[in-house]
Amino acid sequence: MSRHYSTNRPPLQPQALTPLPLGSVKPRGWLLDQCRVQGSGLTGHIEEFWPDLGPKNMWLGGDSEGWERGPYYLDGLVPLAHMLADARLKQMAARWLESILRMQDASGWLGPVQAPYFRPYDHWPVTIALKVLTQHYEATADARVIDVMNRFCTYLQNTLAERPLFDWAQYRWADLVLSIHWLYNRTGAAWLLDVAAKVARQGFDWHSHFENFPCTEKTTLDSCTLATHVVNNAMAVKSGGVWWRQSGAEADRRSVYHTIETLDRYHGQVTGVFSGDEHLAGRDPSQGTELCAVVEYMYSLEELLAILGDPVFGDRLERIAYNALPAACTPDMWAHQYDQQVNQVLCSVAPRQWTTNSDTSNIYGLEPNYGCCTANFHQGWPKLVKSLWMATADDGLAAVAYGPCSVTARVGDGTEVTIIEDTGYPFREEVCFTVATPAPVQFPLLLRIPGWTPAALVQVGAQEPQPANAGSFQAINRVWTDGDGVRVRLPMPITLERRYRNSMAVVRGPLVFALKMGEEFRLMTGQPPQADWEVRPTTPWNYGLPLAPTFATRSAPIGSVPFAPAAAPIILHTRARRIPTWRMAQNSAGPLPVSPVATSDSDEDIELVPYGCTNLRIAEFPVTEQRTA
Q1: Which of 311, 319, 312, 320 lies closest to 293 in space, CA to CA?
Q2: pTM attached to this predicted model
């Protein structure tokens, strides 16, 4: 158990790793640029023009929207403000936080009693607000947070029998248990575990749901329920791990892996997420994935990394964060999609094969389809940065995911050290660490070696590089002195993944590659940068790859807008052939033809760029038949 950071108190199961307090990890390099792009985009300006987050919001004491949107927004604004040390963003967050901390009533209820159009005493938006308050406390040590959370948990203890969880809160119960456990670990009050048990008993039984999974096909309109909702499933991924901390049951621990495997089998996409537009929609790459599901799946994986410590969750986290997350927003982060498609060849207001979503779902804009993603997407990048490093049980540090950053933490005997992580990862193969310490100190440094790398090398100082096993944590336990360095090389061979209907996806390290298409943005409404856009193709899209394609790799500088289509940091050149019979259907790339596909068209040179650098793309390609002489 870490001596320096709050960890699970008995009888909770000890966590493998301990999340560091907000602010311990700071972005650098391209990741700092990306966070600054976010702060200069919608996150930093949305209150100026979106009424739902304006001064009349009920969480600010007004009389308009008072359900999930204010807390959702803060769940990203608060961590972004602190990791950027941005005074303006901090001031924006403080206005909300001060209002929330003052609005608790005598019963302990926190927040609006009834948001417009919703039932009174809905636990779901308060659950998000608690996550916000825990982050605020970690960054500021504001003692009011502990008092407010204690009083709300007392409310739960007194009222759950007569006012049980319902609707969204019932399916998202694990998020509430996380905050109750967080409070227990800081106070030791045993009654809080009784409250957590009541919450879990009232929550939807995700374990049984995935043991007898009924959603093996695209959800039909008449079978849509909250159990088929894509965001609920993204949150449910962590539920077994969260409850295992209290139950200690091996079946709960195992259920995490079964849940992920089941969602992959029936609804998985090459980006690491699963389809859901708005409900689980099968493996067809023209089906959509909701942006809320992307950021919530990331959050589930970040929590699972801490709870179970399995490096496989780091692999999945990077696959989603470096592909699906940036692709769902314009490069300047002023506009986003509700639904992104893996094979996305037109973004327009038009009917598509969605289960329930509207014709606006895949345009880039302020509030396409519905405003939940407008409020919720802000957590993606800042929570990723926060989770790049965690503390180990033996007072060391673990790099659980990679990106340019610095971490400052207490290690070993309590010495505070800083580790600078310099890297162009995931666009580059090398990660370099430099230790800054005021005095020599012994502690273990754990480095995640991704499962996809065949020949990783770890070099400490001037020593000979040593091989490291893929899919593991490489531990270096030594006395560290100021200026010590570690160099990690993670070779990224290009691999070909077989996907839906025997199609092919091109992957290099954590990055998925997609066809670079000509794109024309057409202004629909609004005044740029606050605007809604259609995106139309200016080049062909219906290409197939040969069974054994060859690639030439070209690197380019990593710019200040890292995921801009015109400035992709790495490009693959290959040959492909058009498939004239593969056409548009329902305003999307038509159903993938079953590979191999016959075509008489000639070979053409095409470019593939990182999926996150695209607004239009093909990422799951048909495989063309080999020509005979």
Answers
A1: 320
A2: 0.98
